[in-house]
Amino acid sequence: MKEIMKLLVKEGFEAYVVGGYVRDYLLGISSTDIDICTNAPINKIMKLFKGRGTPFKEYFAYHIEEDGFTYTITTYRKELEYKKNKPTKVEIAKNFGTDLLRRDFTINTFAIDKDGYLVDMLGAKKDLDSRIIRTVGDTFKKLEEDKTRIIRAIRLSCVLDFDLDPEILDFLSKYPHYLNEVSGDFKKRELDKIFNSSCYSKFFYLCSRYNLSKYLGISFTKIYDVYDKYGIWAQLETTLPLTKKEKRITNTINKIIEKGDIGINDIEIYSDEVLNNAAIILGKSDKLKALYEMKDMHSLFDIDISIDIMLRYVNVRNFKKTYKLIERNIMEGKLRNNSSDIEEFLRILWVN
Questions:
Q1: Tens of pLDDT, residues 292-310
Q2: Which of 14, 167, 296, 338 has its CA 20 to 30 A from that of 238?
């Protein structure tokens, strides 16, 4: 990043790191996507970085992927017309301030100049401190011209745990059908980001409050707080394009849910992500932990008592110790290996 900035400045051009990378840096979030904005013409950018990346001249942009980072270098520009959520008429802008006006949300207008100083021309700091997602300029125009911004606003609100500006909420209440104009692939990518975050419950609240589900290609009743995104997708009916892996995992989770229980054989067959998600939805998380304990115990013989009954008396933390104690008492002839005697043993041991 510094090398790219220095090269542009050395040639007499302005250069700013701008957008989500700066926002994430201020929030303490790591990021690998870096946008650099400059007054250098695209032909000059292509010459300076020849052979290092890919030009997109129609957008005055140049992409470089190096050392695990993606750099997008763009000439200052104005986006005058949109069609199908993409700018179709783009012009060079005279200065950096004009370029910032084309951006989606105020918190994405932070910049860092060539000397490392923070630049804030549009009140980004105020909105970041207030933890609010607000559009740059007129909210209706900004969301109507590029409908992907609607779901991006929702995603940022969930992933960052920020509030949506009242004008965005008003837009959601009046124009949720605009989400029909966003591709299923884009919706799926954004929902994956939401479901991988810790605040996805906010997403389902917004879906219910503003009737968004049918426009996003999903439907749901109750959503459990699960292990990972596969557990969420397993709870949804969706027309969105799931991968073969996602279909396989979610179908397996639902197969176990339909069975209604998890057994010792299941932990030999299914992956942790399948079992943990199914266990949470079934309310069998403690049982799953106990099954994992049993798997590691290498018991000498079968004990005539179910895990479900044991968990009535023993918490998971003491499960392994108690199981070995039962096994030892049976081996020493102090306890008969039948369920009623073992349950009475547990009752005396842990209840009394």
A1: 877 766 566 778 888 888 8
A2: 167
